[in-house]
Amino acid sequence: MKPTPPDVTQLLIAWNAGEPAALDQLLPLVNDELRRLARGYLRRERPGHTLQPTALVNEAYLKLIDQRQVQWQNRAHFLGIAAQLMRRILIDHARRHLYQKRGGGALRVSLDESAAVTDAKTAELLAVEEALEKLIGLDARKGRIIELRFYGGLTEVEIAEVLGVSVPTVQREWRSAKAWLHRMLTEGNQDA
Protein backbone atom coordinates (compact mmCIF):
# COMPACT_ATOMS: atom_id res chain seq x y z
CA MET A 1 0.00 0.00 0.00
CA LYS A 2 1.41 3.36 -1.04
CA PRO A 3 1.70 5.91 1.78
CA THR A 4 -0.30 9.08 1.62
CA PRO A 5 1.62 12.37 1.63
CA PRO A 6 0.48 13.29 5.18
CA ASP A 7 2.15 10.11 6.50
CA VAL A 8 5.44 11.24 5.00
CA THR A 9 4.91 14.79 6.21
CA GLN A 10 4.23 13.63 9.77
CA LEU A 11 7.37 11.50 9.75
CA LEU A 12 9.43 14.41 8.41
CA ILE A 13 8.15 16.65 11.21
CA ALA A 14 8.89 13.95 13.80
CA TRP A 15 12.40 13.47 12.37
CA ASN A 16 12.93 17.24 12.56
CA ALA A 17 11.83 17.11 16.20
CA GLY A 18 14.68 14.71 16.90
CA GLU A 19 12.93 11.34 16.72
CA PRO A 20 15.47 9.03 15.02
CA ALA A 21 12.88 6.24 14.65
CA ALA A 22 10.93 8.52 12.30
CA LEU A 23 13.78 8.38 9.78
CA ASP A 24 13.77 4.58 9.92
CA GLN A 25 10.05 4.63 9.09
CA LEU A 26 10.38 7.38 6.48
CA LEU A 27 13.06 5.94 4.22
CA PRO A 28 11.13 2.82 3.16
CA LEU A 29 8.11 5.01 2.37
CA VAL A 30 10.03 7.31 0.00
CA ASN A 31 12.41 4.69 -1.41
CA ASP A 32 10.39 4.12 -4.61
CA GLU A 33 10.16 7.83 -5.31
CA LEU A 34 13.89 8.30 -4.70
CA ARG A 35 14.61 5.42 -7.09
CA ARG A 36 12.32 7.06 -9.68
CA LEU A 37 14.30 10.28 -9.31
CA ALA A 38 17.59 8.40 -9.62
CA ARG A 39 16.45 6.55 -12.77
CA GLY A 40 15.34 9.86 -14.28
CA TYR A 41 18.72 11.43 -13.62
CA LEU A 42 20.66 8.45 -14.93
CA ARG A 43 18.60 8.29 -18.16
CA ARG A 44 20.13 11.66 -19.01
CA GLU A 45 23.67 10.49 -18.31
CA ARG A 46 26.23 9.07 -20.72
CA PRO A 47 25.92 5.40 -21.71
CA GLY A 48 27.83 3.07 -19.39
CA HIS A 49 27.63 5.43 -16.42
CA THR A 50 29.33 3.82 -13.43
CA LEU A 51 26.67 4.90 -10.94
CA GLN A 52 23.52 2.80 -10.82
CA PRO A 53 20.18 4.02 -9.39
CA THR A 54 20.72 2.10 -6.14
CA ALA A 55 24.15 3.67 -5.61
CA LEU A 56 22.79 7.15 -6.37
CA VAL A 57 19.91 6.65 -3.92
CA ASN A 58 22.33 5.38 -1.26
CA GLU A 59 24.61 8.40 -1.67
CA ALA A 60 21.57 10.69 -1.51
CA TYR A 61 20.39 8.90 1.67
CA LEU A 62 23.72 9.62 3.31
CA LYS A 63 23.47 13.29 2.41
CA LEU A 64 19.80 13.52 3.40
CA ILE A 65 20.54 12.13 6.84
CA ASP A 66 22.98 15.01 7.35
CA GLN A 67 20.27 17.57 6.53
CA ARG A 68 19.40 18.20 10.18
CA GLN A 69 19.06 21.97 9.76
CA VAL A 70 16.30 21.70 7.13
CA GLN A 71 12.80 22.41 8.40
CA TRP A 72 10.98 19.80 6.31
CA GLN A 73 7.62 21.07 5.09
CA ASN A 74 6.17 18.08 3.27
CA ARG A 75 6.86 15.19 0.89
CA ALA A 76 7.37 17.47 -2.12
CA HIS A 77 9.91 19.56 -0.19
CA PHE A 78 11.78 16.39 0.79
CA LEU A 79 11.82 15.16 -2.82
CA GLY A 80 12.98 18.57 -4.02
CA ILE A 81 15.96 18.48 -1.66
CA ALA A 82 16.66 14.85 -2.67
CA ALA A 83 16.61 15.85 -6.36
CA GLN A 84 19.03 18.69 -5.70
CA LEU A 85 21.38 16.37 -3.81
CA MET A 86 21.29 13.76 -6.58
CA ARG A 87 22.10 16.41 -9.16
CA ARG A 88 25.08 17.56 -7.12
CA ILE A 89 26.29 13.97 -6.68
CA LEU A 90 26.16 13.40 -10.44
CA ILE A 91 27.87 16.70 -11.23
CA ASP A 92 30.68 15.90 -8.79
CA HIS A 93 30.94 12.43 -10.33
CA ALA A 94 31.09 13.90 -13.85
CA ARG A 95 33.80 16.36 -12.85
CA ARG A 96 35.89 13.57 -11.31
CA HIS A 97 35.31 11.37 -14.36
CA LEU A 98 36.35 14.12 -16.79
CA TYR A 99 39.42 14.90 -14.70
CA GLN A 100 40.42 11.22 -14.65
CA LYS A 101 39.74 10.82 -18.38
CA ARG A 102 42.09 13.70 -18.99
CA GLY A 103 44.76 11.86 -17.08
CA GLY A 104 44.35 13.71 -13.81
CA GLY A 105 46.57 16.46 -15.15
CA ALA A 106 48.89 14.17 -17.17
CA LEU A 107 49.38 14.70 -20.89
CA ARG A 108 46.85 12.66 -22.88
CA VAL A 109 48.44 10.88 -25.80
CA SER A 110 45.72 8.75 -27.39
CA LEU A 111 42.01 9.21 -27.85
CA ASP A 112 39.64 6.52 -29.02
CA GLU A 113 36.15 7.12 -30.37
CA SER A 114 34.22 5.81 -27.34
CA ALA A 115 36.20 8.00 -24.96
CA ALA A 116 35.44 11.01 -27.16
CA VAL A 117 31.69 10.31 -26.97
CA THR A 118 31.86 9.83 -23.18
CA ASP A 119 33.89 13.01 -22.74
CA ALA A 120 31.50 14.94 -24.99
CA LYS A 121 28.49 13.77 -22.94
CA THR A 122 30.27 14.66 -19.69
CA ALA A 123 31.27 18.06 -21.08
CA GLU A 124 27.66 18.62 -22.17
CA LEU A 125 26.41 17.78 -18.68
CA LEU A 126 28.89 20.21 -17.17
CA ALA A 127 27.85 22.92 -19.66
CA VAL A 128 24.21 22.46 -18.62
CA GLU A 129 25.26 22.60 -14.97
CA GLU A 130 27.24 25.80 -15.55
CA ALA A 131 24.30 27.42 -17.34
CA LEU A 132 21.90 26.29 -14.60
CA GLU A 133 24.16 27.73 -11.90
CA LYS A 134 24.26 31.04 -13.81
CA LEU A 135 20.44 31.01 -14.04
CA ILE A 136 20.18 30.31 -10.30
CA GLY A 137 22.43 33.32 -9.71
CA LEU A 138 20.17 35.51 -11.86
CA ASP A 139 16.80 34.09 -10.82
CA ALA A 140 16.89 31.46 -8.08
CA ARG A 141 13.25 30.44 -8.45
CA LYS A 142 13.53 29.78 -12.18
CA GLY A 143 16.68 27.78 -11.59
CA ARG A 144 14.95 25.77 -8.91
CA ILE A 145 11.99 25.09 -11.24
CA ILE A 146 14.35 23.75 -13.92
CA GLU A 147 16.14 21.64 -11.34
CA LEU A 148 12.96 20.18 -9.85
CA ARG A 149 11.24 19.56 -13.18
CA PHE A 150 14.10 18.41 -15.40
CA TYR A 151 16.33 16.66 -12.91
CA GLY A 152 13.88 15.80 -10.16
CA GLY A 153 10.97 14.79 -12.36
CA LEU A 154 8.47 16.63 -10.15
CA THR A 155 5.16 17.68 -11.64
CA GLU A 156 4.13 21.31 -11.96
CA VAL A 157 1.75 20.83 -9.01
CA GLU A 158 4.53 19.36 -6.85
CA ILE A 159 6.91 22.17 -7.82
CA ALA A 160 4.27 24.78 -6.96
CA GLU A 161 3.88 23.08 -3.57
CA VAL A 162 7.63 23.02 -2.92
CA LEU A 163 8.11 26.66 -3.91
CA GLY A 164 4.85 28.00 -2.45
CA VAL A 165 3.68 29.53 -5.73
CA SER A 166 0.78 28.91 -8.10
CA VAL A 167 0.85 26.32 -10.89
CA PRO A 168 0.47 29.03 -13.58
CA THR A 169 3.54 30.77 -12.11
CA VAL A 170 5.49 27.51 -12.38
CA GLN A 171 4.31 27.02 -15.97
CA ARG A 172 5.23 30.57 -17.00
CA GLU A 173 8.65 30.51 -15.33
CA TRP A 174 9.38 27.00 -16.67
CA ARG A 175 8.86 28.26 -20.25
CA SER A 176 10.95 31.34 -19.63
CA ALA A 177 13.78 29.43 -17.93
CA LYS A 178 13.87 26.75 -20.65
CA ALA A 179 14.16 29.45 -23.32
CA TRP A 180 16.96 31.18 -21.42
CA LEU A 181 18.89 27.93 -20.94
CA HIS A 182 18.42 26.97 -24.59
CA ARG A 183 19.80 30.33 -25.66
CA MET A 184 22.77 29.97 -23.29
CA LEU A 185 23.60 26.48 -24.52
CA THR A 186 23.11 27.05 -28.25
CA GLU A 187 24.58 30.51 -28.58
CA GLY A 188 27.11 30.28 -25.76
CA ASN A 189 25.99 33.76 -24.74
CA GLN A 190 27.40 34.06 -21.21
CA ASP A 191 26.04 37.58 -20.75
CA ALA A 192 22.36 36.77 -21.39
Can you walk through the features of this model?
74% of the residues lie in helices and 0% in strands. With 192 residues, the chain is mostly helical. The protein has one domain (5-187). The model is unreliable at 104-117 (pLDDT under 50).
Supply the number of helical segments: 8
Which H/E pattern describes the elements? HHHHHHHH
Q: Please tell me the total number of domains.
A: 1
Quaternary assembly: single chain
Radius of gyration: 18 Å
Largest sheet: none
Q: Which band does the percent of strand residues land in?
A: under 5%
The count of β-strands is: 0
Q: Per the principal axes of the C-alpha atoms, what is the gross shape? A: globular
Specify the helix fraction band.
over 70%
For the residues shown, what is the average pLDDT?
A: 77
Task: Summarize the helices and strands and which ones pair or pack.
Blueprint: H1 5-16, H2 20-43, H3 53-65, H4 75-101, H5 113-138, H6 140-151, H7 156-163, H8 167-187
Keywords:
mainly alpha, 192 residues
How do you describe this structure in short?
The protein is an all-alpha fold and 192 residues long.
